[in-house]
């Protein structure tokens, strides 16, 4: 899978889960069971984007790395 155009992710690379405050890198999305679950995040209405679309911006908003697509989780 990859970036998704249109609402609510608009083709952005970094997508936050507002429920878990984890950030995912859609250019490295992992689609196994219990991995990124991007479609589930979107369907649950928990997808957030960042402006600018960078990992640093996600961190500045309090998001932690997904251990599957980014790694280096601090939780
Ligand atoms: Zn992920």
Topology:
Blueprint: E1 14-17, E2 22-25, H1 38-43, E3 47-48, H2 55-60, E4 64-65
The structure holds zinc ion.
What can you tell me about this protein's structure?
With 75 residues, this protein is an alpha+beta fold. 16% of the residues lie in helices and 16% in strands. The protein is built from 2 helices and 4 strands. The protein has a 4-stranded mixed β-sheet with strand order 3-1-2-4. The mean pLDDT is 96.
Percent of residues in helices comes to 10-25%
- Tell me how many strands there are: 4
Task: Identify the strand order in the major beta sheet.
Answer: 3-1-2-4
The major sheet is characterized as: 4 strands, mixed
| Strand content range | 15-25%
The H-and-E topology, N to C, reads as EEHEHE
Shape: globular
Low-confidence stretches: none
Briefly say what this structure is:
The chain is of the alpha+beta class and 75 residues long. The chain is 16% helix and 16% strand. The chain has a four-stranded mixed beta sheet with strand order 3-1-2-4.
